[in-house]
Amino acid sequence: MFGLSELALILLVVVVILGIKRLPELTRSAGKATRIFKSEARALRDQDAPGRVVQGSVVRRDDSPAGS
User: Fold this and answer.
1) Measured between alpha carbons, how far is 66 from 68 in angstroms, rounded to an integer?
2) pTM score > 0.85 for this model?
């Protein structure tokens, strides 16, 4: 009987053997996806930069009981 680690190793070997032709393409697309993710994260960080001043107004609270 095989354990979980042996099955994972066999699966990894099968994927490498069957997908050896596609491996460079997959790594290129993974690199592109990583670069896009990093650039989008940087854009969001720049957009929500700390220190931005947001104009607002003071709202006074009415402490009188309702219905009086």
Assistant:
1) 6
2) no
